[in-house]
């Protein structure tokens, strides 16, 4: 059977300031902070996860807030734009909301869709588009009603240094279909209803520089551990060098870099974010893997305090 990912599992990026990131993604965009943990490889740094009410794969964006990080430059070998999807008819609400919050945005079109493009406080590029696909969000915050709320990812725009090779990986390894080309971009479709439309530049792009305001990697969905094992074998059979399986507590992961320079992860849907705390209170407490629990006091003392809060403009 041909392997086909259903789309994006999550996107992970570098930022500088934890509270500014919380205020933007939870306060301005209305996403739920579903997990507050640490970078397992650098426990002095938070790892923050934002998504829908349950942290469903296809809705999750994650951040490493590193105050001393250099400023990155978006370019080839990266996710250039992360696309969020909202219900049909909701785009005017979001324009008005960004105006109220004083957030600058631009309007553009791609593949016949109107897009609202903006940047987060560190310069990460985002866009919002209306589509019917995907379940409505069950999370409301800061005056954003559920029928206008972000449902999850619409997809992403990949900036490749070798777009023909990136396209080949999307089609021949990840099992996506090439469905359109318009201007500077080709569009590929995965089988899912969120995070399923991926655009890739058709001309090579100069390499970017990693740092604050750039995406570290994009993760694709595997349905379970057995499916994950098949993915690893397929990646290896196609000449790439995937990492061993890595336990990320809330999913298992493998990583490989495709030839256009973009770091790909394949992550399992289970076990999910409610494995170590009640679903009702996810994101409120700092969660640590068991091997760090003995160092909790030291870790907590070294992390800046953060809170999910309603923005001042939403209190008026």
UniProtKB/TrEMBL annotation:
CDD domains per the UniProt record, alphabetical: PcpA_C_like (cd08347)
Record carries keyword Oxidoreductase: yes
VOC domain location: 7-131, 152-269
The keyword Oxidoreductase is assigned to this record: yes
Keywords tagged on the record: Dioxygenase, Oxidoreductase
A single GO molecular function term of this UniProt record: dioxygenase activity
InterPro entries the UniProt entry points to: Extradiol_RC_dioxygenase, Glyas_Bleomycin-R_OHBP_Dase, Glyas_Fos-R_dOase_dom, VOC_core
Any Pfam family matching the protein: Glyoxalase
SUPFAM superfamilies for this protein: Glyoxalase/Bleomycin resistance protein/Dihydroxybiphenyl dioxygenase (SSF54593)
Protein name from the UniProt record: Ring-cleaving dioxygenase
